[in-house]
Amino acid sequence: MEFVNLQGIRLDGRRPKELRQLCAEIGVVSKADGSAAFEMGNTRVIAAVFGPRAVQNRSQKIANRALVRCEYSMAKFSTGDRVRRPKGDRRSMEISLVIRQTMEACIMTQLMPNSQIDICLQVLQADGGTRSACINAATLALADAGIPMCDIVVSCSAGYLNTTPLLDLNYIEDSGGGPDVTVGILAKMNKVTLLQMDNKLPFDTFEKVMQLAIDGCEAISKYIREVLLENTKQLEYRRGL
Amino acid sequence: MARTISDLFSKKTDIPFYISYIHKITPNQTLKQNNQSTLNPRRHRERDHREMRDLKDLQKSLNQTQRVRLQSALQQLQEIYSRASSSPAAAVSVSDCIHVNLEDGVLKGHGTTNRNDDVVATVCGIVERVNKLVYVRDLRARYKPEVGDIIVGRVIEVVSKRWRLEINYSHDAVLMLSSMNLPDGMQRRQTSTDELNMRSIFEENDVICAEVRGFNHHDGTLQLQARSQKYGKLERGQMLTVPSYLVKRRKQHFHNLEQYGVDMILGCNGFIWVGEHVEHGVDVPVETVKSSIENMSIEEQKPNNFTPLETRQGLCRIANAIRVLSTLGFALSVEAILKTVEWSISSNVEIKDMLLSEFCVQAAEIEVQRRILLTKRKN
Amino acid sequence: MSVELSFGEKNFIQGGIEQNLRADGRQRLDFRPMPIETGVIPQATGSARIRLGSTDVIVSVKAELGRPNSHHPGKGKVVIYVDCSSTVGPSFQGKKGEELSSELSTALQKCLLGGSGIDLSSLILVEGKLCWDLYIDGLILSSDGNLLDALGAAVKAALSNSLIPKVNILPDLAADEEPEVDIIDEEYTQIDTSSLPVIITLTKVGKQYIVDATLEEESQMSSAVSISLNRNGQICGLIKRGGAGLNPSVILDMISVAKHVSIRYIATLDSEISTAEASSAS
């Protein structure tokens, strides 16, 4: 199947190094301490953060830092074909674990000992790149909740089809049989916290694809930063002096 | 490579446009239609204007004129703020560098951290500088307690010699039996009978007003005290939860609104109590009242045991005014609340209609007027 | 999922209900404002999102081709399922929301599919062989009481928003062959939802009944009866929840109160759905 035609246009009209449309909204779940909705093209994710609050399960209490829990779930109507996936299935558990480790790396947990932070992720529409969208949404929700973080975590995916590195794969390209590299970086500190890949790729091509994903992450981090700044300013104006 | 991507990104429409507009994909634009450039980021998007927080839910129910009015009111607020404050709001986002003259020996406060000799923000907020202290005041974070704050909390557990309360904080707060006045008012030593009778003073799920005494150093829990007559159990009313940054620290947190017969306590932790007026200094024998009521079922209780209707109306009006102001994100002060309530009475708005979009827009406009008057008085 | 209240607060709520002035100023039979948004899930056949105070639910309808049940060869199939997202609260993470979701799913199935709410024979394409299966999925994002009513209203809105594609069935097939279909792009049929019932939950607190209870009021209930009524005032389903027993005369009284409320409620719901459709079409 031709994913990139001769003029260099992909199936959805993008160029190989173009990101999908980004859209972020802060404050979608009124009962949560912090929440955000993030859209990358047709992939839509809601993140809600509850915490820091007192630990519910005394046995899990950690004396010198905060406990971070994460849950990822996909709505039944999120994928094209409606599949009844139970809540605790393997893929969701794996993604929950991965996202928890990524977010734990950036939250300054030692500032909040003996407390618990819950991150809840709900996928409303899945069109490739749900992992990345979830991490971006979780970053926004944590910043909205005022939880101290050492840096913003952003994530983006890239692949390699028809001998072209492609940025931000959608579902059709993802299932095209080519490799899929997901990268999560700490934006300002320029460090990689998440790196996953499936399928196989020769080493020098891998370097190109990973660099492409990192560049995509930088563009997303700029957008996220602007959204957060604007939100902060608006809250301050409305509150008044 | 980086240049290509950022170029493409910068060709997208202006930033405020991005944040305030949300792309709505209509049902016709499915994935199967490959040839349409619907996902081309450079296409101009038109959609309805949305805002943030619960304001979004409000905005969904506004029609066009109401939206325009609300937008202009918020715009005016922005102008008032920028005129009133001496320096523009230095908003920072996570991991932004804070400009600091390192030779001055700056103290780094909350919300900042060191990174390679740079002072960097760890939360989103406004940078505040007080002499040599630089810190970031974050907005929507959990309540930050200070000694002497008046808070409203709910009892979650009764343990030996203390009550554990939930306040809007990362830990629970503790009220020791020794920090409470004994029920008969006498100053005497606590006996074991007092310990066994703790539930007769406060039970689980009771709402209590107390003051912050200090922090417990080993695990960071908060210590409270309720030694004065004005603290203690709160009954006959309702408790509201608002974001704690909307309640500013003032000299007075207890307000007796005489014309409505209502007591209002603005807890610094974001829990607000609105209830029937109770005379302080009168030792109501708590035990007898409660036990007699509990023995009757609901149907047997006499109707005159409930709050009288006029007080209730005043109470509900004030509660709704607080809800409207917190939806709009305005700081809660007695003057703002009273102004909203007076406006609602003078324009004959029904109590339940105070939560509708029309009144919210009017409340925003009233608040703008009030703030303009305030700044004029200051100058 | 209940909220713990102190004795004084409980007294206040009960007093309010007795005096016909609830905590937010509503009267006993008043609903909260109900803004509806349709078309929120573009990949689905139809979808809607409804907010009732802080309660937030999304319902999506997906139409897929399937085989009719051998017992009812002339009818299509409808399956309703409700899920509780973990964003409702940290106590709903993991498997804990399952009890609530299964209770709501069965309640919705009973209330909406009893009676001739959805005309199942309109979903049939080839008798005995091919029909449309409608999968209705609900997702609760946030809860502030009265979930069943919100879900019922959202299902109605989502079905009004659904556009089922028209199909061409290729002729000349043998008796045991599978029919082939050709889906026509850009031509759709709408589902008729005028006879779909609405669900009204009456919560009994003390001696009085209230409509559209918030989470605090629900924690004070002695029992609740959910009645689904259609436009003609006929009962399509009835569920009683709660620990206290009810006098049969009380239930009959509640049904008549619900009938009285339903006229106004159906009118409000219809106007909200048409405003939502109009604004999403523009």
Automatic annotation (TrEMBL), chain A:
UniProt KW Coiled coil keyword: no
The protein's location, in the record's own words, is: Cytoplasm; Nucleus, Nucleolus
- Which InterPro entries would you find in this protein's record? ExoRNase_PH_dom1, ExoRNase_PH_dom2, ExoRNase_PH_dom2_sf, PNPase/RNase_PH_dom_sf, Ribosomal_Su5_D2-typ_SF, RNase_PH
Q: Does the keyword Cytoplasm apply?
A: yes
What's one GO-annotated cellular component?
nucleolus
Q: Which SUPFAM superfamilies match?
A: Ribonuclease PH domain 2-like, Ribosomal protein S5 domain 2-like
Keywords attached to this entry? Cytoplasm, Exosome
User: Where does the chain cross the membrane?
Assistant: none
Instruction: List each copy of the Exoribonuclease phosphorolytic domain by range.
Output: 18-148, 151-215
Q: Which GO terms describe its biological process?
A: nuclear mRNA surveillance; poly(A)-dependent snoRNA 3'-end processing; rRNA catabolic process; U4 snRNA 3'-end processing
One term of GO molecular function: RNA binding
Q: What is its main location?
A: cytoplasm
Q: Which Gene3D superfamilies match?
A: GHMP Kinase, N-terminal domain
Q: So what family is this one in?
A: Belongs to the RNase PH family.
Q: What is this protein identified as?
A: Exosome complex component RRP41
Q: Which organism is it from?
A: Zostera marina (Eelgrass)
UniProtKB/TrEMBL annotation, chain B:
Q: What Gene Ontology molecular-function terms does this entry list?
A: exonuclease activity; RNA binding
User: Region (Disordered): which ranges?
Assistant: 31-50
Query: Matching InterPro entries, A to Z?
Result: Exosome_RNA_bind1/RRP40/RRP4, KH_dom_type_1, KH_dom_type_1_sf, NA-bd_OB-fold, S1_domain, S1_RRP4
All copies of domain S1 motif, residue ranges: 146-227
GO CC list: cytoplasmic exosome (RNase complex); nuclear exosome (RNase complex)
Key word Nuclease present: yes
Example GO BP: U4 snRNA 3'-end processing
What is the first-listed, main subcellular location in coarse terms?
Answer: nucleus
Return the SMART domains for the record: S1
Q: Tell me where in or outside the cell this protein is found.
A: Nucleus
UniProt keyword annotations, A-Z: Exonuclease, Exosome, Hydrolase, Nuclease, Nucleus, RNA-binding, rRNA processing
Out of the domains of life, which is the source? Eukaryota
Return the protein name: Exosome complex exonuclease RRP4
Organism of origin is Zostera marina (Eelgrass)
UniProtKB/TrEMBL annotation, chain C:
Q: Is Membrane one of the keywords UniProt gives this record?
A: no
User: According to its UniProt record, which protein family does this protein belong to?
Assistant: Belongs to the RNase PH family.
Q: Which GO terms describe its cellular component?
A: cytoplasmic exosome (RNase complex); nuclear exosome (RNase complex); nucleolus
One Pfam family per UniProt? RNase_PH
Asked if the Swiss-Prot or TrEMBL record annotates the protein with the keyword Cytoplasm, the reply is: yes
GO MF annotations in UniProt: mRNA 3'-UTR AU-rich region binding
What is the name attached to this protein's record?
Ribosomal RNA-processing protein 42
Compartments (UniProt record): Cytoplasm; Nucleus, Nucleolus
Q: Which Gene3D superfamilies match?
A: GHMP Kinase, N-terminal domain
Protein source organism: Zostera marina
Keywords of this entry: Cytoplasm, Exosome
The residue ranges of the Exoribonuclease phosphorolytic domain are 30-165, 196-259
Annotated GO biological processes are: exonucleolytic trimming to generate mature 3'-end of 5.8S rRNA from tricistronic rRNA transcript (SSU-rRNA, 5.8S rRNA, LSU-rRNA); nuclear mRNA surveillance; nuclear polyadenylation-dependent rRNA catabolic process; rRNA catabolic process; TRAMP-dependent tRNA surveillance pathway; U1 snRNA 3'-end processing; U4 snRNA 3'-end processing; U5 snRNA 3'-end processing
